[in-house]
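Q: How would the structure tokens look for this protein?
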Amino acid sequence: MGTPTAAEATTQHVLIAPDKFKGSATAAEVAESVAVGIRRVAPDVPLAVLPVADGGDGTVDAAVAAGFERREVTVTGPLGGQVVGSFALRSGTAVVEMAQASGLVRLPGGRLAPLTAGTRGTGELVLAALRASAGTIVLGVGGSATTDGGVGMLAALGARFLDADGRELPDGGGALRDLASVDLTGLDPRLADTEFILASDVDNPLLGPHGAAAVYSPQKGATPEDVVRLEAGLARLADALARTLGPEASRAPDAPGAGAAGGMGYGAMAVLHAHREPGIAILLDVLGFDKALIGARLVITGEGALDEQTLHGKAPAGVANAARARSIPVVAVCGRLLLDPARLAEAGFAAAYALTDIEPDVALCIAEPRPILESLGELIARDHLLHLPRS
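A: Here is the predicted structure in token form.
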């Protein structure tokens, strides 16, 4: 990002760009609560609110807050029931959030189903985006409940995954142990003219000790026996697609990100020719973050827990990197702060403010974060805005 011109830098606004506080407040709620606190102390400072996301749950909400149109669609949930999901659309670009259809949040009663959870609903969201004339589809793949290599998504798009008797497999990664062949002749022809971007920070391969089954399926309820079964199924999928598609597909299992979202990354790259981009980087670009930075005097970002994981490609780190490239100071708000001042400074944060600094009761912070976030907004205004020159 370049340096803004003098004309561009006249607004001297504060840009509030947090991610969600998972299980507590949406990114938009966090941003507006901080804004309320700032207005109490510094009412004359212009504010710009741009909630962000890194590809996981909340990505569509962030896109809508940035001006995209929300499109609601009834799709298949991870266990086969109907759910109402949504995607975001603007100027031929669609943002599809896998968690809307195939995420852990969509499991009935929160019951984990590592062998039977499928991604068909994600494919139905993609179909809806195609019907809406999207030429570019950003596929955010965080928060998945599945380990099916993306076969459910591809089946919804017209692919057929067959057993030795030519019968189509049921949904879910557990069924892949019976996969014998793949038929891609029925794929929706619009896919050939559509650019797919896989928004993911996961760089795991599809198979092996660092692959989708070994690393991530236990988090989705898989037992050690389930992991073995899922790994074998994903290997059969890779072999079948290599036979069907040729040498390029045979290299896809080893591509960084192939193991994302239970192998959804592999299915998207091998069949849809998706290219992977860091989740926060592509979402900042899609949301227009570069433009929002022009003329900002301060950027406020954050997420539920500010910790070492934050610094490895999560939304606040991406925001801080982008702002630092323009020499704009960045502060963070969070539920819990688990980084020391030196680590914060190294990551580009001038300061961080935690809900637990004001309210030590963690349960109350989770249940009622908004008044506490307003108080943090007041603190940020006193510490960082009253001392900055006005435009």
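The chain has 16 helices and 13 strands.

The domain at 59-280 is CATH 3.90.1510.10 (Glycerate kinase, domain 2).

Upvote if useful.
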